[in-house]
Amino acid sequence: MSRLMLGKTLERICKAVLLLCLVHFLIMMIFYLDVYTQRFDIFSRFNTRNYSKMHQYFNISKPNGTSLTFLVGEDHFVSSRKLENNLTVTKKPLPMCPDVPQGLVGRLLIEFNSLMTMEKVQRENPDVREGGKYKPSDCIAKQRVAIIIPFRHREHHLKFWLHYLHPILRRQKINYGIYIINQHGEGMFNRAKLLNIGYMEVLKDAEYDCFVFSDVDLIPMDDRNLYHCYDQPRHFAIAMDKFGFRITLKGMKVSRPDSKIGKYRMIKHERDKHNEPNPQRFTKIQNTKVTMKQDGINSLKYKLVNVAKYPMYTNITVDIGTPPPRPSRG
Ligand code: UDP
Ligand code: MN
Fold first, then answer.
1. Is 287 inside any structural domain?
2. Tens digits of per-residue pLDDT, 104-134?
3. The whole model's pTM is what?
4. Is residue 290 part of a domain?
5. Which of 217, 266, 281, 313 to mutate to test ligand 1, by most ligand atoms within 8 A of the CB atom?
6. Does 186 map to a domain?
7. Per the structure, how many domains does the chain have?
């Protein structure tokens, strides 16, 4: 009798073990299909709906030293951590931006007839950060570029410049900041001094390793004209060639874009007050070889009046102590 009881108990145990095996097998099958077909949505912690918004790389390293790289959504990586507690999950750094960015459009239509407002520029560029700063979100740019613009009373040009340049720079995957170097007062306008001041001042704001100097009324007509630094100083606006000689005296070569993509459109304007052509300009240029040693960054004197960060640019107003304007003849 007791032997019969023992036999029955053993049989029950065997059945239970078999059933357990079957259940285990079934669960394994469901997991298998879940991962490979991405169709099942049975276990919320293995929710595969997130596959549609997968966007980040994660590196999962196991204690034994091996590691797996996943392109997964947030929820999925959390569930992986729940599954095996001794897994460590770390974010993988972004890749470097390619030398030739994808998504450039080439030749651009530039016109200045429409009504332009700063609000419109702001609406068009929601991902530009305060002070006119931007960096690509999907890759790391190799350089940090400061774009420096000499400025006074040209608000109407600035709107167009920002309207065209922000989207171009974004497509070019540039990590950049826009700086307006605004000359205080009504003394003679000194573009070169403003550029030198700009170079000094932007470095107080952030660590830049590339400086692009641009006039506020010059818009590139092709987005393949990349706004970053090359091995040599680069003259971007080759169709507006004016100041290249300074640099050649220092024994550097000037690099230029292809003539097809180096074209610029300039906003037409009258000559500004207190920016009349300097009557000594030809003698000054002839003497550059001598004067450039003392004249420039080494001997820069100015007073910082104000720094203001606006949504689309940073404004740096400086008093450069220029003499009052020459009385106009006739
Ligand atoms: N500029 C300015 N206010 C002035 C004069 C010049 O902002 O009163 C700046 C502006 O960035 C301009 C650049 O200096 O694009 C060059 O001056 P301008 O446009 O008069 O030179 P040009 O048209 O002869 O190249
Ligand atoms: Mn101009």
1. yes
2. 999 999 999 889 999 999 999 999 999 999 9
3. 0.70
4. yes
5. 217
6. yes
7. 2
